[in-house]
Specification:
This protein is mainly alpha-helical and 41 residues long. It contains 1 helix and no strands. The longest helix is centred in the middle third of the chain and has 39 residues.
């Protein structure tokens, strides 16, 4: 039974990570561009 709970938790974490990466990718890219622009000044 513990294994099932463990696998469900792992699956939820992985799915959440993939969703966040997909959802926030443009925000992360924008932050990287701003960071690079600040370093170049």
């Amino acid at each position: 039974m513990e294994w099932i709970i463990f696998l469900v938790v792992v699956a939820a974490v992985v799915a959440g990570g993939l969703w966040a990466k997909k959802y926030f990718r443009h925000e992360i890219e924008r932050a990287k561009r701003i960071d690079r622009a600040n370093k170049n000044q």
